[in-house]
Amino acid sequence: MKPYRILGIIFTITALATGAAFSQISLPSTPVSLDKSLSTNTPTVTTPSVDVAAMLAEDEIEEEEGLPFRFGAPFDVDYTLENSGQWEELTDGGRVWRLRISSPGAYSINLLYSRYVLPPGATLHVYNEDRSMTIGAFTDRNNKDHGEMATSPVKGDVSIVEYYEPADVRGEGEIAITRIVHAYKDIFSWFAKDTDGFGSSGSCNNNTNCPEAVDWQDDKRGVAMVLLSGGTRWCSGSLINNVRQDETPYFLTANHCLGSSNTWIFMFNYESPSCSNINGPTYMTTQGSTLKASYSSSDFGLLLLSEQPPESYAPYYNGWSNINSAASSAVGIHHPAGDIKKISWENNPLTSTNYLQTSGTTHWRVAQWDDGTTEGGSSGSPLFDPQHRIVGQLHGGYASCASLTADWYGKVSLSWTGGGSSSNRLSTWLDPDNTGAQVLDGWDPYAGVNITHTPLPDTKDTSNSYEVVAVITSNATLVPDSLLLYYDAGTGWVLDTLIPGAGPDEYVGYIDAQSPGTDVDYYLFGLDANGKADTTDTYSFSVIDYAVAMSPENENQNQPAFDTAWYSLTVTNDGVLDDEYDLTFSGNNWSTAMWDETATSPVTETGYLTADQTFNFVISVEVPYSAFGDYDSVEVVATSVADPSQTAAAELKTYSNGTTGSFPWSDQFPEDTLFQIRWVYNSGADVSFEAIDPPSPPYTLNLNGEYDTIITQPIDLTGQSGAVLSYYFERGGAGNAPAVGDDLWVDYYNSGGSWINLANHPGGGSAMTAFELAFADLPGDALHNGFQLRIHSAGDCSTCDDWYVDNIRLDFAPDITAGPTSMMETLAQGDSTTRDLIIDNSGQGSLDYSVNVQLALKDGNPFAGLVEAGRVEPAQRDHQIDEGFFLEAKGSESGNMGLPVLYDAGGPDAFGYFWIDSDEPGGPTFAWEDVSGTGTDLVGDLGDDNSIGPIDIGFDFPFYGNTYNFIYLGSNGIIGFAPTAMNARTETPFPNSAEPNNIIALLWDDLNPDDGNNPGAHVYIDTTGGRCVIQFVDYPEYSASPGDVMNAEIILEPNGSIKLQYLSLAPGFDILSCAAGIENSDGTDGLEIVYQSAYLHDSLAVQIVNPYQWLSVNKTSGMIAPGDADTILCSFQTAELDTGSYQATITIASNDPDPGDNPLMVPVDLTVTDGGPGWICGDIDNDGEGPNIGDLIYLVDFMFNAGPPPVYEDAANVDGLSGIDVGDLVYLVDFMFNLGPAPACP
Question: Active-site residue numbers?
Fold first, then answer.
């Protein structure tokens, strides 16, 4: 999860034009010194140096805390006209005071004033060293009652303040500079311009003068950028209308932007003049405001501007809605990162919710911007509903161009009543007369006359006058006899005076009826009492004689390659006179033809049609071999024969669905990339090897956050009644577990052209460590030739919510059986044997299966009792830690805290490893094996964050099914059986697909054998005595204090046993930041002992054991066609087993949808004897006696009546030959009744 941010952050204006760049309603004038010969030695004050690195480090901390981003370092000063600068006398009796301010290395300088009182005629300018940028003149018009003032940033690290005072007001001016802001970031981007925008906003932002923003040209004029108190941070906000519509300059912004607002600077119309990223004007500013109301719950702040935005700024007072109803769509206008003004669109409904982790429904949530985004600096900006009314102001969120995720806006509906008093609600100020208004439209106080009219269409009416309706508004009274309609029907202009209509501000005029074929031009004029007027464009319409229409005008179809798209079209005589029409088509590349409506005869014309008569025909487009998404367009045109200028057209676009997949269809993701022919659309999904224990390893489909979506090629399911969808899924796996609401959906494309949900797997809970099989019967509307499967997920952010999917199959259902249903063997110690396990598929669909052998712990094993009592740790834990946890900086800690270790044993993992420690009764004994005197010291080759190897261990060591005779040694407390990433210093939970894999972690942390405070570290290896000991002696952490060392060892035995021993861990040694455990070669299976939790202590032994694999199978997965079978060879080995009974279960999981058959469990019993077979030759019924009549009957029943098989096959093989057959029956009869030879079992 990314940390949320408060969006009122750094203002990042771009390069400004030379000359008067900023002004708080300043007068156009130049500094007096420009025309006078004054001293060139202006007194200079210099700020202290700025430690930029330290400031940037602090900024990172502030960002994590959600504080607004900082661009400048403030220096509090006290420079007045009396204690600094230099006065110079002028010949006219006036005088000039100048002060040069130097802040070395600053990108810009801006100033705050505690006293600003200028007499009439006095001026103040601020400019940089080369006068490429000048702001001012500021005059007595900028005086405020509170006496404070602020001037905007000036480019460069030198600013000169110049004050001119006329002779007649000498000594009356007061100026006190109290703060200098040194910009240590390039807030103007003067020195590093971004080609995508001004400031640093992302390239996905939209300028407000792009064509798609044409409907928002009034609203944008109310939005402004705000330089906050202190001069170091920026927000956005908007002028907002009140019910009186009296031009009171109320300004809505965010509560979290607030501070002292006396010195705030409000910049209007800072926008590109076009859709391109061109710098906008920056001189339209006002300075100062008074806080009227604020409310933290909805994060609003309402200000009253101290200066009225003048008419030259074209201010617009935006409307509002206080109705608590979610808008169907929304628009945001704002200044992201202090950039030129931008606009963003959300095309989906807003959601009423709380803000982040707070309670209630105080905010409107934008789930994801469809076009554009917001960024730092957008805080306080307005959110508009489709009616162009403000419904909220931006509080914060996650959105950016890189992460198109959620934003939250404080509700106007909540702010309306707020906390119940005038200081914390909007209603007092925006509806001062308590009218109860719920909505108010925006208002332009300087609009003058405005005429809105929908042009008349062409008409067939030749009898009735044509009504012209217009809405005419003005902020002054309209002059009734100057509201006029002018029209010309070919005989000269005719005047008609408009009269009031039925609707508000509606006026109506009339044009006399005309004959067919007449063209009419007309326009409207309006005048108000202030002399302001508006004249519309000249509009035109025709009284129809000949006309033609075609429907539909546009149509798109999707068809598979080698198929044909058919379009039905209709031509209508839309005129008043009889006519016929030629039919043509053009622009196509694919084979196209035009047919009559029966699609049997080609056509090229309609024949004569009377008025309103229609003609139907069809167009065929043959789709060639093509990829999904390829398309071809054709334009079909009907042309009037009587008047060829009259045409009608239809645009037909045919999309290829690519080649159609055949049934049955499946994908096991065998490679590390998707097959594009199978998956024709993909947004965000990929193939991953990070799933745990996938059914067809190593790869699976991975959808990991936000709105990842993948769609199959079209698949022909026509007539496939009984088809079933099956797939495996895993939530989280070795990645991040999706939270509640971050679900996985499986949809299908039905025969009606709609996507229908088939299955939903909810997020929430811990990560799954095994795949689950899912089935879905396909309904009738799925059984068509354009069936497609869509899998998509939701997530809080990109790459942070993992769903894994594997073995997707569209097929008929298989039907699994397996035999024998149980196995029982008796073997002498050291013997071995094999048995066949037959898996049959009698269903109509292919059978995917997997075979897993789980060995039960032998009675008497202390771990077995702990498992039964539920007193063991899981092999793998979900610590709910972000993916970025393993990227911590050198010398720092991740800040993570793992789950506590509650028991003294854990496991087993998927392979069968478990662990038990010396604190558990019956567990291993701590017995330190000191090899410092006999082993080889390897520390000389080790250093900080490195590894060495391979190192011979003197025997073959079995580990997760592979055998190794060497190790690699990592300096951070791990050993492994592969060299990759063995220098890793940051521990991860077990298992984890991130390298290193194939490791044994004794104490994995950022360690350092070269630590200067702890010389004398050693790592010894001793391979004598038939085992291998790797011993760490006086081994320190990175940057450890003196004495903070550990002494611990790993002991490997040839039988695969692993023992971890911890002799001593210094009190200052950080055991809370380490991990211990084991992991297989690809990180899909592992056994975690501890991860970043209090567990390890002095004199602790941990034994890691893998039970002897006495039962194995030669095949662990496969696919069986309908009617076929697979034979699994089950091998029994007793070489390392004691005498006694052993149990195991063979589990067969499959895609058989019958829960009674999935999985199938085959219990296995093995008896190990001390040499005898454990059975009597000829004792076929295993009653301990025989052979006798009962055994003979048992054998006959088995062979001829499908009776149960012999418990021990070898006991029935009385002739000692291969298998049980009739020869054994004859042999047994001969022995029992004819004094034949005794049974001779093998």
Answer: 256, 299, 379
